[in-house]
Write a structure and sequence with these properties.
The structure holds 2 protein chains of 2 kinds. Chain A is α/β, with parallel strands linked by helices. Chain A has 6 helices and 4 strands, in the order βαβαβαβααα. In chain A, helix 3 links the parallel strand 3 and strand 4. Helices cover 39% and strands 9% of the residues of chain B. The chains are: A alpha/beta, B alpha/beta.
Chain lengths: 153, 261
C-alpha cells in the first residue's frame, strides 16, 4: 500500500499570518519565483491566532507536513502575537515529541513581507524533507480507526 | 482524640466555619470528608496516604456555599490554593487553611504568603515510579513512544475523571463539550483520546501543581499524570517559574528560537 517515495507527492498545509508571511508569499508570486505546488495556504490574522488544535486537525485530515510562519520577532502587527505563539509552540512541540508525534513534520519559520525568496525556499525545503519522510500514515491510521476496525472484520 | 479533631470540633462548635473539608479513613485509602457538625470532627484523619486534592471543591459553589469554610491541606492542596488564588478563583475571606505538621500539631495559616512558605519548606519527595517511567519513555525512540502512548490512550473510556479530579480544570464549558465546531470527537477512539489529553495538558501548562490527582482518579490507571509531570518539567527548564502562574499568557523576548528556521 505504501507509495514509493519518488511517486509520493506530499500534501503540505501552511498556517501563515496575514501581515507578513501571507504578503511574503504574495511577493513570491508577483516576483515570478517558481516553487513547489504542494502547499496550501491558510491565512490567519496573526500567528497568535493559530490554535494548536488546528495543527492536529490538519494531520488527522491527511496532511503530511505543516508550515507555521509569521512575522519576525518585534515585527508583529499586534506587537506581541508572535511572541505568545512562540511560547505556545515551545510547549506544544515538547508535548508532541513526548507523545511520539513526529515534530519534524511541523516547520516553524519567520517570513516577512519582503522575503518572497525565503518563502519559496522554505516551501521547497519543507517539501523535500517531507518527501524523504514519506506520508504520515501513522497518524492518519489513528484518525481512521473506525474504518480500520471495520475492514479488519 | 488528637489535636486535629479538637481543633475541627472547636471551629464548628464556635460557629467560625460551617464546613470543614478534610480526610477520613475509607475502605482502602483515605477519602474526602465533609464535616458540618462537631460530632463528625472525630472522624478526621491526616497522614501520608491522603492523596485526593481537596482544592478541587474550592471552586464548586454548590459545595462551599457563601459561608466560611476550612480545608485541611496537604502540600499539593496548598499549592493548588496558591495557584487558584493567582487566577482569582478563591474568596480568601471565606477560607481557613489548616494543616498538620509531622508532630501532629495543627497549623492555621494567617495569610497565603505564610502558607506558600510552609509549603515550599515541606516539598514531598517525587514518586520514584513516576521518575523511573519518565526516564524510560525519554529513552525510547520516537516510534516506540508513539506506540506506547497509542496503546495506553486507546484504553481511555473518556469518563473525564481526570478533569473532575483536577482543582485547576474548573472551566464552566470545557473544549471537549464544544460541538460547534466539534474539536474533539466525544466517543473514545485512539485519536480523539489523544487529542483530549493533549488539550488537557496544554490547558494545564504552567498551572499544573503536579499532585497526580488525574492519574489517581483514572479508573483505567492510565499514566496520564506523566504527561502533566513532563510538561511541568519542560516548562520549568524552558522558562523557569513565573510569578503570575500561567506561562502561556505571557512571554519573554529572549525565549528560545532554535526550532524556528
Amino acid at each position: 500500500m505504501e507509495e514509493s517515495n519518488d511517486k509520493f507527492e506530499p500534501r503540505i498545509l501552511a498556517f501563515v499570518c496575514n501581515w507578513c508571511t501571507y504578503a511574503g508569499a504574495d511577493l513570491t508570486g508577483t516576483s515570478r519565483i517558481k516553487y513547489a505546488t504542494n502547499v496550501e495556504i491558510v491565512r490567519f490574522p496573526c500567528t497568535g491566532r493559530i490554535d494548536f488544535m488546528l495543527l492536529l486537525k490538519a494531520f488527522a485530515n491527511g496532511v503530511d507536513g505543516i508550515i507555521v510562519s509569521g512575522c519576525h520577532p518585534n515585527d508583529c502587527h499586534y506587537t506581541s502575537g508572535n511572541f505568545h505563539a512562540r511560547r505556545r509552540w515551545i510547549v506544544f512541540r515538547d508535548m508532541l515529541n513526548f507523545l511520539g508525534i513526529d515534530v519534524r513534520r511541523i516547520r516553524f519559520s519567520w517570513v516577512s513581507a519582503a522575503e518572497g525568496a525565503k518563502w519559496a525556499e522554505l516551501v521547497n525545503e519543507t517539501v523535500n524533507q517531507i518527501r524523504e519522510l514519506g506520508p504520515y500514515t501513522e497518524y492518519q491510521k489513528a484518525a481512521k480507526y473506525l474504518e480500520e476496525a471495520n475492514n479488519h472484520e | 482524640m488528637n489535636k486535629l479533631n479538637e481543633k475541627a470540633a472547636a471551629l464548628l462548635q464556635e460557629g467560625t466555619v460551617k464546613l470543614i473539608i478534610g480526610y477520613e479513613q475509607g475502605t482502602e485509602k483515605p477519602r474526602p470528608l465533609f464535616c458540618t457538625v462537631p460530632e463528625d470532627a472525630s472522624r478526621l484523619i491526616f497522614n501520608d496516604q491522603c492523596k485526593n486534592n481537596l482544592a478541587v471543591y474550592l471552586t464548586k459553589k454548590e459545595i462551599i456555599g457563601d459561608e466560611k469554610i476550612a480545608v485541611i491541606a496537604t502540600y499539593y492542596v496548598m499549592k493548588s490554593i496558591v495557584q487558584l488564588d493567582k487566577e482569582n478563583q478563591i474568596n480568601k475571606d471565606n477560607l481557613i487553611v489548616l494543616t498538620v505538621d509531622s508532630d501532629g500539631e495543627v497549623i492555621e495559616f494567617n495569610d497565603y504568603q505564610e502558607m506558600e512558605k510552609y509549603a515550599d519548606e515541606h516539598v514531598p519527595a517525587p514518586d520514584p515510579k513516576v521518575v523511573a517511567m519518565l526516564e524510560k519513555i525519554d529513552n525510547m525512540s520516537r516510534e516506540e513512544r508513539w506506540a506506547y502512548w497509542k496503546s495506553e490512550l486507546t484504553k481511555c473510556i473518556r469518563c473525564y475523571a481526570c478533569r473532575a479530579a483536577c482543582p485547576l480544570c474548573y472551566c464552566n464549558r470545557c473544549i471537549t463539550e464544544v460541538n460547534c465546531p466539534q474539536w474533539i470527537d466525544p466517543w473514545p477512539t485512539p485519536l480523539s483520546n489523544m487529542e483530549w489529553q493533549i488539550n488537557r495538558v496544554m490547558h494545564m501548562s504552567g498551572r499544573c501543581v503536579g499532585c497526580g490527582a488525574c492519574a489517581e482518579a483514572c479508573p483505567l490507571d492510565l499514566p496520564i499524570g506523566l504527561l502533566t509531570k513532563k510538561m511541568a518539567m519542560d516548562i520549568n527548564a524552558e522558562f523557569g517559574s513565573s510569578d503570575d502562574g500561567n506561562v502561556l499568557s505571557t512571554f519573554n523576548p529572549s525565549d528560545k528560537e532554535n526550532f524556528i528556521h
